[in-house]
Each structure stands twice: as C-alpha cells, then as structure tokens.
Design brief:
- By secondary structure, this protein is α/β, with parallel strands linked by helices.
- It has a single domain, classed as Rossmann fold (3-Layer(aba) Sandwich).
- The chain is 30% helix and 24% strand.
- Strands 1, 2, 3, 4, 5, 6 and 7 form a seven-stranded mixed beta sheet that branches.
C-alpha cells in the first residue's frame, strides 16, 4: 500500500568544516538556511518552526503551475517521486555559498522526496556541502536528518516536535 504525504523529511546539509560566522543568526552561530517544499502546509509548519528555532533564513520551493486534481496529483506525483523525477518549479536561488548549513525539507511521497524538491536538488550548487543519497550524485553525503509523521498530528504538535529536534543541531 502506498503511503502518500504521511511523513515530513528534512536533510541537514553542512559544510565539511562549517565555521562559526556572524550573520542574521547573531555572533558565534552558524549561518543556516531552510529550503523546503510544502503541498498541504505541514512541511511549511516544520520549516518555519525549524527556521525560528535556529534563527535561519528560509527559501520556499514552489511549483511552476498550481497542481490540479489533488488525488490525481498525489498519485501521479508519488509515482514520479519514486522514480526520482523532477517537476517544474519557479525560479529560486540555488546557491549556498553564504551558509554554513542548509536544511532541505520535503513531504515524503511513496517513500521518496517530492518531485519539486527533486527539481531543486538537480539545480542546486552543493559545492563543499554534505548531503543525503539523492544529493550524493553531486558529491555530498548526509550529516544528519529527521522525519516526522504528519498523520493525525496538529500543526502545534509538528512545531513542538521540530523545536525539540532542532536542539540536536544547535
């Protein structure tokens, strides 16, 4: 049975020797970015809570065209996600040179990152950063991750769990 949009996935992406820098996060902290895609709003809740907790900048990946027919989109999107297909997204800054670490958040579609996140990863410049499996093809490796199930979870539950998880990355 295919599970669609039942979990949230965030990958921590960080420089090999991430230096402590000043920036929007204040002196002595790592400059952090949260990049995410959200179809139903659940990943948005997690991304915003994580960004707030870590004092991070935020970039939202958006579909080039609004998905039509929610159920059909979720079924076809899940099949495409399993195959690693990238969907068309609006232009977004894909450079991370100013950041010590980057979190990439995506709904999980049939056990895989969403097609808009696949598109973002394909376009992103991850030079000098560590990544997860899909990003390894571009020379990186994972340094940490967390997943949350959105099934029966309220937005408040997701935000609280995200704040708790964020403590691991301070």
């Amino acid at each position: 049975m295919i599970r669609i949009l039942v979990a949230l996935l965030c990958y921590l992406v960080a420089g090999a020797f991430a230096a402590q820098t000043a920036g929007t996060q204040g002196p002595g902290t790592m400059k952090t970015l949260v990049v995410y895609y959200s179809l139903t709003g659940k990943t948005d809740v997690v991304a915003q809570a994580l960004a707030k907790e870590l004092g991070a900048d935020v970039r939202r990946v958006e579909d080039a065209a609004k998905p039509s027919g929610a159920w059909w989109f979720m079924i076809s999107g899940s099949i495409s996600a399993m195959r690693g297909v990238a969907s068309e997204i609006k232009p977004i800054d894909t450079g991370f040179q100013d950041y010590d670490r980057v979190f990439v958040g995506s709904p999980v579609w049939a056990g895989s990152p969403s097609t808009p996140i696949n598109a973002f990863i394909a376009k992103a410049d991850f030079t000098g950063k560590k990544m997860s499996e899909r990003i390894q093809k571009k020379g990186g490796k994972i340094v940490g991750s967390f997943a949350l199930s959105s099934k029966k979870a309220t937005n408040e539950d997701l935000a609280a769990k995200t704040r708790e998880m964020a403590q691991r990355f301070r």
